[in-house]
């Protein structure tokens, strides 16, 4: 059985002080949740603050991206060992905002993923189609390309600690969630593809998160789908009450 994973991506929100306040609230409402994992991805500058507040909690701390090198001349980047040194154990990779605004391509995303794996972080590989691609009926071809290229070089063993997040670009920050049927259809497709690339056992054990306008009022129906194993939440993760409701989905 796949353990649900509820993740909050704070994007470029929260000062260090805001982060302290938000994580304190989330820490309280997640205490005692034994059957699911909770993950927070604050801005880099707040990683240390968040993980220090969570030092005796099971909440996973993640960076929002990560470089493939341990150190060097990579201005503006953060290395896997730096993330680990402040208590982070996971990294979001290939978010659509990285792909679209900062022009990260599949090759770079794959380097980041392999770097995360090499240094022992849990990568969360994000894939997703734009509205234009969906309307042109290219959704599955786009997702297949992003998944195959993003995971190139990953072994079956690596998949034991890799998470996939399906985030349709048209549903991010728009209030327009994929319907539970649309999301389930894509998640089942991703799982089938994982079985082709690796093997069925691996595909059955990989967690596939849905992201894109997940809110307190739609989380339960999304989480009830057989291939949706969690959520990657943006806007609603910045409000303690909303995020607490989301992680306490029934
Ligand atoms: P929203 O929940 O704000 O749509 O953002 C989703 C997202 O991009 C999470 O990574």
Oligomer: single chain
Order of helices and strands: EHEHEHEHHEHHHEHHEHEH
Distance between the termini: 16 Å
Radius of gyration: 17 Å
Largest sheet: 8 strands, parallel, barrel
**What is the second-level CATH architecture?**
Alpha-Beta Barrel
Q: Report the portion of residues in β strands.
A: 5-15%
What structural class do the secondary elements suggest? alpha/beta
Global morphology: globular
Helix content: 40-55%
Q: Could you explain the architecture of this structure?
A:
It is a single chain. The chain has 250 residues and is an alpha/beta fold. It has a single domain, classed as Aldolase class I (TIM Barrel), CATH 3.20.20.70. It has 12 helices and 8 strands. Strands 1-2-3-4-5-6-7-8 form an 8-stranded parallel beta barrel, surrounded by 5 helices. Helix 2 links the parallel strand 2 and strand 3. Helix 1 packs parallel to helix 12 and helix 7 crosses helix 9. The longest helix has 18 residues. It binds 1,3-dihydroxyacetonephosphate (13P). The site of 1,3-dihydroxyacetonephosphate has 14 residues, from strand 8.
At a glance:
By secondary structure, this protein is of the alpha/beta class. The protein has 12 helices and 8 strands. The chain has an 8-stranded parallel β-barrel, surrounded by 5 helices.
